[in-house]
Amino acid sequence: MGKKSKMSAEDALEKKMKSKRKQAKKAKSMENALEAKIRKKKAAEAEEEKMEESVGFTSGQDDEEYGRKIKAKEAEAGGSHLFTSGGGDVRNRPRQQLQQNQPAVDPLRAAQQERDANKKEMNSRFQDLHSTGQWGALGKVEKYCICLLGLGAIGAAIYFGLRFSGGGAGKTPSPTQQPTKSPTASPSAAPSMEPTGPSYRAEYAFELMTAASPKLTLPQTPDELVGASNDPSSTPQELAAEFILYDDELEIQARDPRFMERYALSVFYYQNGGCELSWFTSTNWGSGEHCNWHGVVCNLQNRVVEINLGSNNVSGKLPVEFSQLLELGTMDLSNNRLSGRVSSESLSMPKMFTIQLNSNLLTGEFPFIEIKPEGAILDTLWIQENIQLSGSIPESYCTMGSVTLDCDNFKPQPTFLDDGSSTTTFQAQCLEEVGAQPREFTCNDETSSPVSVPVPSPSDRICGVPAAGT
Question: Which residue, 445, 456, 450, 400, is CA-closest to 425?
Fold first, then answer.
């Protein structure tokens, strides 16, 4: 079969218009037929009423005369109007009424008279409302009554308001209830709203920095920080606080979590040789976004997640301010000149995964328990080649992925699986009590020392003097 020719838009529109005109014509013819039917019905009703009025009942008429009149009227009307609105078919009317010589009654008039007799008298005002849609005029007495009712309602409202609100004359207000909650044992970590005023940023930021740093490293007020960079006795914390409050070009708000991260990194820079220019590389430190500082890696929210400064001649102690790096997962400070005891605050961040502090000068007991509490995600710990570092290893480290240390300095001592093997168990009870052991447990047999480099000659710059005990 051949394909149908495609109908053009004009043909389709013309066809649609023809269909609409045909429907309109059909509707018009139906409307005319309905109007003709209505007119015919009205004419029939008028004819019936006229016939009823002309055909009356009198006491002297008999059945024959009554029948002749009915037949005459039917003949005049064409014999089609045998029914009336008052009494149905006129041929079926009761003849007993004529035989008893009773006067004839028009059923329509009788029904109307019965309705008029049963109608109750309507109030004049309701009659006005029924006919005009408006109330009738109020009388003088009625107006006075309405005013009195309104005043009475207002007075009652005032009385009950005073009565139940405790404000009545001569009544003593009832004591307020005790607060439902007792005050907290300690203030919250941060106020719910940042203080207002010209110095709100400095005051609130100073509170945060004081809480993060040990005592004796910061003054009593933020105003005392001004000029710290010109005072040789300033601490690294004072230099870092002055920089981030008054000299930092970014001017980060104190409520921004990056503020305290930037403060912690600045303390590390002043305290661990960066300010003295002893680092091999310190590109961008102290200027611009801290995510661009050498060795600092951030996520998409500009939060610090890695510090990679291995083999960079970093000296000094691990600062406790590192506890503010809440997103930090990797810390590589291996092959440097870090010394002193390791504080638990500097390494026990909630997302810490990898710690590499091998080949330094760390001393004292390593805080195993504090760094890896129950459920922590720490997986890699390299602390070998710190010949004066020691400690006791808890069973929670059985689930670690990689542990490397100087085994002779730590307890319990590892056990070799067989003679001549370099593979060791972490401790005898790992598999028995915990059901797991580290995938890699390495005992360091080498003795090495951190890279020795000449310390740069002192310059005229002020880098801070750590306070005693820090």
Answer: 400
- Residue 301 falls within a domain, yes or no? no
Residue-wise pLDDT tens digits, 27-42 = 888 888 888 888 888 8
Q: pLDDT tens across 229-277, in order?
A: 999 999 999 999 999 999 999 999 999 999 999 999 999 999 999 999 9
Residue written as tokens 């109030």?
Answer: 123
Cis amide prior to 412 (ω within 30 degrees): yes
- The Cα-based distances of 61 to 90, 97, 446 in angstroms read 16, 11, 151
25, 319, 357, 380 from 362: Cα distances, Å: 105, 13, 9, 18
| Higher pLDDT pick, 427 / 86 | 427
Q: Does 462 reside within a domain?
A: no
Does a structural domain hold residue 139?
no
Residue 88 lies in domain: 19-117
DSSP 186: S
- Give how many domains the chain has, as a whole number: 1
> What is the per-residue pLDDT for 180?
46
| Cα 284 to Cα 198, 255, 296, 297, 466, distances in angstroms | 31, 24, 10, 13, 24
CA 178, 181, 182, 183 torsion-angle sign: negative
**pLDDT (tens digit per residue) in 116-152:** 777 666 566 555 555 555 555 666 777 788 888 888 8
Nearest-angstrom CA–CA distance, 327 and 319: 17
- Which segments of 287-423 does DSSP mark as H helices, in order? 368-371
Q: Around Cβ 319, how many Cβ atoms within 10 Å? A: 27
| Percent of the chain surpassing pLDDT 90 | 38
- The tens digit of pLDDT for each residue in 21-79 reads 888 888 888 888 888 888 888 888 888 777 766 655 444 445 566 667 666 666 665 55
How many Å apart are CA 408 and CA 404, to the nearest integer? 12
Query: Has residue 362 been placed in a domain?
Result: no
